[in-house]
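Hello Y.,

Per our agreement to keep a running log of every chain we model this quarter, I'm adding this entry. I've kept the format consistent with earlier entries: sequence first, then predicted structure.
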Amino acid sequence: MKERLKQLCDQFLAAKAGIKDVFGMEYDEIYTLCANMLVSRGKLPDAAVLRRCRELLKTKAGIFSSFRGTMEAPVCCLMSVADEPEQKFARIEKAHSVLKRHFGDSQYLVYASAVLSDMPTEIVEGVSARARNIYDLMKRRHPFLTSYEDHVFCVLLAMSERSDEELISETEQIYKSLNLSDSNTMQSVSHILALAEGDPAEKCDILKGIFNGLKEVGKKYGTYGELAVLAALAAVSPDITDAVTDIADADDYLSLNKEYRGFFNCGEHTRLMHAALITAASYAPVGSDISGTLPMIAAEDALLYIYDASSDTMVMMTTM
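Predicted structure for the entry above:
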């Protein structure tokens, strides 16, 4: 097992435990997502800072705000790694107000707002308007597949230098090339892969190669929300064989931890997805420009939606 991969596994487990100490009574996979958000950014949770960020958020956002509930812990984690958490929150709020004008209110857009929060106002305005245009194009072409859960993907796609038509055509090409799960999952996967550079067919081959390679070594990967993570990994993986080996090694290592043992702990599919998350973090360079991290950001957003839906805490949303 690679030393860096082992180190990231240890950091992931420590981060998850640390976040759980601060944000008790959350859906368990939110801790997983937050741990990955920090570790993949080269950070570990600071309990004192996280508590201050949580108190700050509560004073700024009411109980029915989109910043509360599912988004509270992720937003606080992102605030905690900023030099000025209060200013970071103000920038996220400002970006969110822009996105709301185009999409209506949504807790998932809070995450997109965090991504846009360090950009100049005029860039945020331009990306938001373009994202709405991409969404409308998708909705016209695929009315039954496209819904509010695609809003954030559209925001991320709008940060690409490629034209709207090129992006949508590529997502369609990827969607038609893959047949690993249901239509909604494949739509998310196609968005994530479209965010990455490279030939669409090659990206599909890498994803299928990792998926089948894991099966060959006795690691049966899940075929629903877990595929979002595998798509992000395929976007940054230098080699299929290396990716399969690293995921398998990380999974074996995680299986030794008490977090993953016992009747009430997560199943093998979830643990393998966690291993893929950590492996993706080991490949993505810390501090890379935003374009290099968009697939992982998209996968994190997909997991936010999946985890929230699974916890039966979906909020009512207003869409335009």
